[in-house]
Amino acid sequence: MILRRLKEHTQAQHERVEALVRVMDDPLTLQQYREVLGSMAGFYLPLEAQLSDLDLPQVFRFEARRKSALLRRDLQVLGLSQTAHAARAQLPALSTVAHALGCLYVLEGATLGGRIIARHVERQLQLTPENGAAFFASYGDTLGVMWKEFGAALSGYAAEHGGESEILQGAERTFGALERWLRRTETAPA
Hints:
By secondary structure, the chain is an all-alpha fold. Helices cover about 65% and strands about 0% of the residues. The model has no long low-confidence stretch (mean pLDDT about 95). It comes from Deinococcus peraridilitoris (strain DSM 19664 / LMG 22246 / CIP 109416 / KR-200).
């Protein structure tokens, strides 16, 4: 129930964000891909740090879901310096666990889309998880299991604790912050 509500509630935001992530272009250049990874770093690195400071229920296995290390590795493999992703997005306000779970919904949903992106990046640039595309291929063969596990945990949390409106707010705020960040980085000088 909560997953369906989240999808319906954030559909328009999801579509706007997806349109801003210019990684499915054909042809896709290495420079475009590097810029997308830099933008993702500016959002994911501080956001995952913020989430790690919250007391998320263990059932969500947040540490196993973090993608910052994969993103940093991709950036390093592709020759981006430490300062190349120094800019940080304005993060969504996540003042409750329920808000954070809405945020995780957005990040986990992006991971589902990452599989399609990873295939495209491999076809276009011959990049694999081993040589620069680990972030988008993050869960590998366990993607389906990780998504089902997340959905079950979220449904269980909502059934036990309520807070559906805060979960929806957290997702909406995360999509909004990501959209603002991507619009900013899209127009930023190279």
